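pasting for the record
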Amino acid sequence: MLQKFAAAATVALIGLLPLAAPAQETEAPATVEITDFALGAADAPVQITEYASFTCPHCATFHANVWPRLKSEYVDTGKVRFTYREVYFDRYGLWAAMVARCGGEMRYFGIVDMLFDQQQEWAASDDPNVVVGNLRTIGKSAGLDDAALDACFKDGAKAEAMVAHFETNMAADGIEGTPSFMIDGEKHSNMSFEDMKAIIDAKLAE
């Protein structure tokens, strides 16, 4: 299964290349470090990492139905540290992640919200140019300008580093589908808020 993910990631990266800047612009491009974005207290007693794709319908459903209560009841109250890890099943998901990261740490989760809330609209077209236009609209809604978006879409080195980061983490945690969750190092599949609440509360009671 992980080989399929790797293949999908490779397709995603290849799909991005027409938008990327020429590869020979610099002789020795700097190494790009990819970090995960997180919300909540760093020393929260429960650590949750979500693996999700911006083009995954089940991930959008989780974001709509579970995430608001998880955030308000556990993340905002200092009980949970929530880390989001992007999964790229296709080039659209990779492009969406590049736009989210384009906003930096301050805008990242706001753009994540828009990407999931509007998933059925921005990702619906079979025309990559339409999807890119839709993603640019989301980026502009978050306060990014054309120059910033152009730079993000053309950053082939960052895209390659993002794919490598994704493949390494997926393999390390044995992730086989999205959304998946690592809760204090234990892997869990998609679940309702009630099921996640039960797991969190049990860990908080330990």
